[in-house]
Write a structure and sequence with these properties.
The protein is mostly beta strands and about 230 residues long. The protein contains one helix and twelve strands.
Length: about 230
């Protein structure tokens, strides 16, 4: 009996060996990859500074920077030339029909012929001389404190050429001179043709010229001087 068991075991062992050569043992196992630990550095707090690129500036040899020289303006000293009298140009905002300008030599003059200045020169220039024959000055006294005024005085003006006319006016040339000691002198300039047709007319200039009373200072004489 024991021999039979041993024989069966041997037979089974031989059969299994022969079948192992024919029947595959199963799929070949794929090897599992081994994990590799790679060290990654942590970011640092140090900022990355960009590289600055500088363009070199060429050095000019022998070149001098020009230093601005201050301009010295000569201040004139007292001139020996006599002071020129500047006329007062009247430029009213009212009408100046036919005239470029009107001038007065002074703004105040004295009544009569003793105190100076005793006259005022009034001059005017025409826009055009075409058809102009006469340039007339109209003047009157006007009270400083009331509406009282004298009659108008009509005086022809003289020409100096180039359409410019003038007249030296004094108080004794005007009507009703005896009734005014201190007053305004109002005036107006008119241009006409030979037949009297009006070409140009200025406004009435008011409170531009003042006439003052003349109070002469007494001059001592030998009769009034005591030893």
């Amino acid at each position: 009996m024991k021999k039979l068991q041993a024989f069966l075991i041997l037979a089974l062992f031989s059969l299994s060996c022969s079948m192992g050569q024919i029947i595959p043992m199963g799929p070949t196992a794929t090897p599992v990859p081994t994990e590799t630990l790679t060290f990654t550095p942590l970011p640092t707090a140090t900022p990355v500074t960009p590289t600055l690129t500088f363009t070199p500036t060429p050095t000019l040899i022998g070149f001098k920077t020009i230093t601005p020289t201050p301009t010295i303006t000569d201040t004139p000293l007292a001139s020996e030339t006599p002071t020129q009298v500047v006329l007062d140009t009247l430029t009213p905002t009212v009408q100046m029909d036919g005239f470029l300008f009107v001038n007065v030599s002074v703004n105040e003059f004295y009544k009569g012929a003793i105190c100076e200045p005793s006259t005022v020169r009034i001059s005017a220039q025409l826009v055009s001389q075409t058809d102009i024959k006469y340039v007339l000055l109209f003047a009157r006294f006007k009270s400083l404190t009331s509406e009282r005024a004298s009659k108008w005085t009509n005086i022809p003006m003289q020409t100096i050429g180039a359409g410019t006319y003038y007249h030296d006016l004094s108080s004794d040339q005007m009507l009703e001179d005896a009734f005014f000691q201190t007053s305004w002198v109002e005036f107006q300039v008119v241009s006409t043709t030979e037949s009297g047709r009006e070409i140009g007319r200025t406004a009435i200039f008011k409170e531009r010229i003042k006439m003052l009373a003349c109070v002469p200072t007494a001059t001592p004489t030998s009769a009034t001087v005591k030893p």
